[in-house]
Write a structure and sequence with these properties.
By secondary structure, the protein is α+β, with helices and mostly antiparallel strands. The strands form 10 sheets. Strands 10-7-28-11-25-24-12-13-15-14-23 form an 11-stranded mixed β-sheet, with helices on both faces. A 4-stranded mixed β-sheet has the order 2-3-5-4. A 3-stranded antiparallel β-sheet has the order 16-22-21. Helix 7 (219-235) packs antiparallel against helix 8 and helix 14 packs across helix 25.
């Protein structure tokens, strides 16, 4: 509580304003904790003193207005309190088109960036119906990233009458029993607490623990709009129309209210705008490496000689051990087994040619490997990005804008389930805001003839379609595809057994997209026979008569046996008499085996389109089911199938890619909720089947990037046949070249950014962020990133991160694709259009957005 406040209303306002700025306490050493501590200092050192001084000056002529001023300020700003200290969800006026409160909330949060949902477990006091409870979380010990339920038990009654409930993490399916809590309270205190009261206490506690973090896209304009609308309503309230409220003195008081409110808004907006700039700052590319199959190296000029150097390199021991661990080679495998020799020379062993070499084991040889490839980026088959997906979509956009043919995503379904990887218990508004932020960026990645498939269940399908219509336009909706995900009913379902999910399909421009055809099945082809041994091959007969009558098609036909045949009543032949004679002469009319039947038209298998138009209902027999997907993971990465509760089968993604990419055999596929990497495996398998060169770009933020996704891709490259984590001898590999890296993240920047501590030295009219170093030096070592020498500025980026990939960072920043990186000029990168750039001293105007925003 602010002890310097003059009145209760003043204390109330400043307490609330402090809550708006500081939010829920966040402990630890995370970037988020650093941010919130900075925000608290900003409030204490800058906002409070300057705001109080301004209020005292403004109220000097109107001391009687002090209490009302704070009351009115509180009544406005209380609408924007959140537990995370963010600007939030109760605007005075919004155009809302639905009565659903949570969807309404989305339209009030659509001007926000969704950052994260985080569980901030903290003790809490709750008072209900005369009862006072303390929920004590000192014993809370959650498992990492696991959405465990809360378990409650009665602990004691304090001397002031407070009932203490201890909160721990549920384990092994244990659940809180309200009746047990009632019994323990009765036995220890003699008090009777009804079930409804206890249930309400627990609901209030749990509602406060999951905190959504948002950043406003335009805080200043939003809050000013809201205040002006609020002030208008306040001025025209009925009680304001009486007496002398419109006197000059009264209007001057209201001007004070407006001036102070706008100062508060400016203080809030200054910080929020900084966060928005930081959130959208392009990221550095870090810790990058390449995966490349041995055959791809050997196929390049000088590649075999380089491969012989790699085989004798000290890093080959670790590489061979990885191949053993991944189940690609036997326990006794040695590098010497990579070669076979015959009269024509030394060659790669056919069985091992698709072993994926990871350049992380050969850091001093990486440039020599890359020197083999020109143009480098164009020869890559895929990219794997370890990053929060908004950061990846935003950072890589200049490089990949308009290049993607097909996007597939399987986002968290917002089910409240207990899946391990994603905290998917977003409230609908948070979920929609999270999706909106990312889908708007994703649209910019698409080619004009590109499409996006979004996997979703019944819970959010309708709202997701509405959101996609706002981004892509309702005219670009293609279909709601239904995928039968279960092959057996769920007999323990509470209502109906759900056995399907949806794929909502939108095009960037539906008129330009052409769906790919599905391969014809054996059953479909078996319908084509060749009873007359026609040299043109199998055929199927089709009805020659049609219902659309035309006199030109109403004529008699004589069969080979002399029988005269007319079209059925109301029908006619589909071709004219003259065209019929041409078809007959070309042996395209079939009268049956005995030559006595009604004439039919022969349609040859080789002349029909070699594919099937996709339907909107996909059965598990066609594309697989969830259990099949789990078995695929088990065969390839034994033990990891339990990590993903609802993986997607490879066959499902193969169909998505086939339809989405159409007839482009080199299309780029994007998945920014990559999970276990099914999309990449689907692309690899399709290329292996038809010889295509489709590419993929996957983004995943979880720890499973290293433990599941990357190992799965390596295995999928080496072989398409696995059992219990071991490659099978009859499996087929594929030649491949991919890059993987991680991006600098929001919390990385928050931990490293240098912000001004001495806030009192900043002039009131000056932004506190104008004097900050931000990333202009290394926060740990103090080394400057920018130096002046001989009147010239020099930028030394690798002083920020030792593992920075400056060439890729600049490529993403400028949108230029890399043509060549050579061992002979390791400090330079050449763009496709021919420009040579010194990565040790890049142009300052390029890198400024990375360092100072």
């Amino acid at each position: 509580m602010d002890q310097t406040a003059h009145t209760p209303k003043e204390r109330q306002f400043f307490e609330a304003l402090g809550q708006l700025f500081i939010g829920a306490p966040v402990e630890g050493e995370s970037g988020l904790a650093h941010l919130m501590h900075l925000k608290a200092r900003y409030y204490q050192r800058r906002v409070l003193p300057h705001l109080k001084a301004a209020i005292d000056r403004a109220l000097a002529p109107f001391p009687e207005f002090r209490e009302e001023l704070f009351d009115r300020l509180y009544s406005f700003f209380r609408r924007y309190f959140t537990e995370a200290g963010a600007i939030a969800h109760e605007p005075v006026y919004e155009l809302i088109y639905t009565s659903d409160r949570d969807v309404m909330l989305f339209w009030k949060t659509h001007r926000l960036y969704y950052v994260k949902t985080e569980r901030q477990v903290r003790s809490m006091t709750v008072e209900i119906d005369g009862w006072r409870f303390l929920l004590d979380v000192s014993g809370w010990r959650p498992a990492a990233n696991e959405k465990q339920a809360f378990l409650y038990r009665f602990q004691k009654q304090r001397s002031d009458g407070t009932l203490v409930l201890q909160v721990t993490a549920s384990g092994r399916g244990r659940r809180t029993q309200i009746a047990e809590i009632q019994r323990d309270i009765r036995q220890h205190t003699g008090l009777e607490v009804d079930e409804a009261t206890l249930s309400q206490v627990l609901r209030l506690f749990e509602r406060q623990q999951d905190v959504d973090y948002f950043i406003h896209k335009d805080a200043r304009q939003f809050l000013r709009e809201q205040f002006h609308q609020w002030l208008y309503r306040y001025l025209f309230e009925p009680e304001q129309q009486r007496g002398t409220l419109w006197s000059e003195r009264r209007l001057r008081q209201l001007q004070v209210l407006k001036d102070i409110a706008e100062q508060v808004i400016d203080f809030i907006a200054q910080f929020e705008e900084e966060l928005a700039r930081l959130w959208n700052k392009p990221r550095f590319v870090l810790d990058s490496h390449y995966l490349i199959t041995l055959d791809r190296i050997a196929a390049q000029e000088g590649g075999l000689a380089l491969l012989e150097q790699l085989v004798t390199h000290p890093g080959m021991a670790a590489q061979c051990q990885e191949w053993r661990d991944l189940g690609m080679v036997a326990a006794g495998f040695t590098p010497a087994q990579l070669w076979v020799e015959n009269l024509w020379g030394r060659f790669l062993h056919e069985r091992y040619q698709y072993l994926p070499l990871d350049t992380r084991y050969f850091p001093d040889m990486e440039l020599a490997i890359l020197s083999l490839f020109d143009p480098l980026d164009q020869q890559l088959d895929g990219w794997l990005v370890h990053s929060e997906n908004y950061q990846a979509l935003n950072t890589l956009l200049p490089k990949f804008r308009g290049r993607v043919k097909c996007i597939y995503i399987d986002p968290p379904y917002n089910t409240g389930g207990d899946e391990f990887i994603y905290r998917d218990r977003f409230r609908r508004s948070s979920w929609l805001t999270m999706m909106e932020n990312r889908l708007r960026l994703a649209r910019e990645w698409l080619r004009d003839d590109g499409v996006i498939f979004v996997s979703v269940d019944d819970g959010e399908q309708a709202t997701l379609r509405q959101l996609l219509e706002t981004i892509f336009g309702p005219e670009n909706f293609v279909n709601n595809l239904i995928w039968q995900k279960k092959y057996a009913p769920q007999n323990d379902a509470r209502w109906l057994s759900d056995n399907h999910d949806f794929l909502v399909l939108f095009a960037k421009n539906k008129e330009k997209w052409r769906p790919g055809l599905l391969p014809r099945t054996l059953d479909q082809n078996r319908r084509y026979q060749n009873p007359d041994r026609d040299p043109r091959g199998p055929w199927q007969s089709d009805n020659l008569a049609v219902k659309t009558y035309s006199p030109a098609g109403d004529y008699p036909i004589t069969t080979p046996t002399g029988r005269v045949v007319y079209p059925p009543q109301g029908y006619c032949w589909r071709v004219s008499r003259e065209r019929f004679q041409e078809l007959l002469a070309d042996n395209r009319i079939w009268f049956g085996r005995d030559g006595h039947g009604v004439p039919r038209l022969k349609r040859f298998l080789h002349e029909i389109k070699q594919g099937v138009t996709p339907l909107t209902l996909w059965t598990y027999a066609e594309v697989g089911h969830t259990q099949e997907a789990k078995q695929e993971l088990k065969r390839m990465l034994s033990g990891t199938e339990a990590v993903f509760g609802t993986p997607k089968p490879v066959r499902l993604l193969q169909r998505v890619v086939t339809i989405g990419c159409g007839d482009d055999p080199e299309a780029l596929v994007l998945d920014f909720f990559a999970g276990s990497g099914t999309t990449a495996q689907a692309v690899l398998d399709l290329n292996r089947r038809d010889g295509g060169r489709r590419k993929y770009l996957l983004v995943e933020m979880g720890e499973t990037f290293d433990t599941v996704l990357l190992p799965r891709l390596k295995r999928a490259i080496f072989s398409d046949l696995w059992k219990n984590g071991q490659a099978q001898a009859t499996g087929r590999g594929i030649s491949h070249f991919a890059k993987y890296f991680r991006l600098e993240q929001y919390e990385d920047i928050l931990r490293r950014a240098r912000y001004q501590d001495d806030l009192e030295t900043v002039a009131p009219e000056q932004s506190i962020f104008q004097c900050d170093l931000k990333l202009l030096d290394n926060a740990e070592t103090g080394e400057p990133v920018v130096e002046w020498a001989d009147g010239e500025m020099r930028v030394i980026l690798n002083r920020l991160y030792a593992d920075m990939d400056i060439a890729e960072t600049l490529s993403c920043l400028t949108g230029q694709w890399i043509r060549r990186i050579t061992a002979t000029q390791p400090s330079h990168v050449e763009w496709e259009e021919g420009t040579l750039v010194d990565v040790n001293n890049p142009p300052c105007h390029w890198v400024k957005p990375l360092l100072y925003w």
